[in-house]
Known about the structure:
By secondary structure, chain A is mainly β. Chain A has strands at about 5, 10-15, 20-25, 35-40, 45-50, 55-60, 60-65, 70-75, 85-90, 100, 105-110.
Amino acid sequence: xxxxxxxxxxxxxxxxxxxxxxxxxxxxxxxxxxxxxxxxxxxxxxxxxxxxxxxxxxxxxxxxxxxxxxxxxxxxxxxxxxxxxxxxxxxxxxxxxxxxxxxxxxxxxxxx
Amino acid sequence: xxxxxxxxxxxxxxxxxxxxxxxxxxxxxxxxxxxxxxxxxxxxxxxxxxxxxxxxxxxxxxxxxxxxxxxxxxxxxxxxxxxxxxxxxxxxxxxxxxxxxxxxxxxxxxxxxxx
Lengths: 112, 115
């Protein structure tokens, strides 16, 4: 029940295309869902996050879509750029614990 | 403002040795969490400290321990190192202010190699 399942494992997108990464969870007590971007040799950087009381959140080219009934959420990267090439992690946490449960990561490559 | 800082950047140890990793949170943040990230996997939660008290512990053996100091910096200690302890160790800080969204900000990590 503590798992967060992330797919796909890897993704190749043409420059200007849309990158979509999906995550699913089991524990309905989770109430915070962040996405992190990680470059090789660096720590994860917070990209965007959402709570279950909204179905979508957009920040620049990054959008989170959230489906509470399906217990799924996804990251959409619009107009993908070669500089977006990195590993992306979804995560989930529940109030009172503050620990994050991370997905297994998606390695994104955007072709120039 | 400086972000989360960690030291050292890289570390090479042999099996059986002990290691201490250090972390300084973002100024004003009182909570520090530690994560282990094995190559090709997502970070795994080890500990969370808030106001110098342990508030959470992940599924790691007792060889792993940590503490938080009055200035909110933190140390992670690992005893009797095993080859499987080779990983990137990440520190994350958060403010845990009432009404905050539980945002955690990660440092660059310490790459530990056990030979």
